[in-house]
Amino acid sequence: MERNRGRLVTFEGGEGTGKTTQLERLATFLEARGVSVVRTREPGGTQGAEAIRALLLDGAADRWSARSELLLFAAARQDHLEKVIEPALAAGSWVLCDRYLDSTRVYQGIAGELGLAFVDHLQSTVLGFRLPDLTVLLDLPVEHGLARRSRDGRATRFEQKGTSFHERVREGFLELARREPERFLLVDADRAVDAVAAEIARTVAARFGLPP
Ligand code: TYD
Fold first, then answer.
1. 90 lies in some domain
2. 7, 8, 19, 11: which is closest to 193 by C-alpha?
3. How many independent structural domains does the chain possess?
């Protein structure tokens, strides 16, 4: 497989599933094999999108209507795509992104009130739809993830939503993975960090022709 083309790898999952830790572990693995890596996150990744992030995560759970919230996520993603993701891929870097469009499909679409078709329609028409080359889905029982979070002592607007919302989030991600088994790598995140990192590294190396 062609080695010097940029790849977009996204990390998805519910709250407290270890996405940020695993993203860093894969970045280190790739850099040790000579790959240029850009680490980024959503909502955020640019100055403008980080400002939108604060609007989205802080404040009362009912601060935005479902449609307004979706459009804020879309605006943040558009800025991030234009300024960071597309230029990095064009330069041959790999972009590792902590959450991306599947979070919107699940949180606003499947678990939220808008439905998947509505969200996909907006994302494909407005955003032009840059799909990831690989999406790592970290799956964990909801109560384990939320327990990790409450130890961190912070609660965003989304973490304030009840357990049944987060159960729908978990099921929503699993449904997306079932629909696109080629794009998704479903990983059991209820294990030691090292074991999860090793499985992801092994799969990425095999899929993209890198040394193990
Ligand atoms: P963050 O603290 O980054 O969550 P985590 O560390 O679990 O990734 O907060 C991001 C929150 O925003 C998270 O609760 C999921 C939510 N979100 C959406 O609802 N839609 C989206 O499109 C994105 C990117 C995130």
1. yes
2. 19
3. 1
* CA-wise closest residue to 170 among 196, 195, 145: 145
Residue whose CA is at the smallest distance from ligand 1 atom 2: 156
Q: Does some domain include residue 211? A: no
Write the burial class of residue 211 (CB in 10 Å: 0-12 exposed, 13-18 middle, 19+ buried).
exposed
pTM of the model: 0.96
Q: Could you report the per-residue pLDDT of 151-198, keeping only the tens digit for each?
A: 766 688 998 899 999 999 999 999 999 999 999 999 999 999 999 999
CA of 99 to the centre of ligand 1 (A): 7
Does the CB atom of residue 77 touch ligand 1 within 6 A?
no
Ligand 1 pocket check for 103: Cβ under 6 Å: yes
Question: The domain that contains 156 carries what CATH number?
Answer: 3.40.50.300
Residues 6+ apart with CB under 8 A from 100: 8, 10, 12, 42, 77, 132, 135
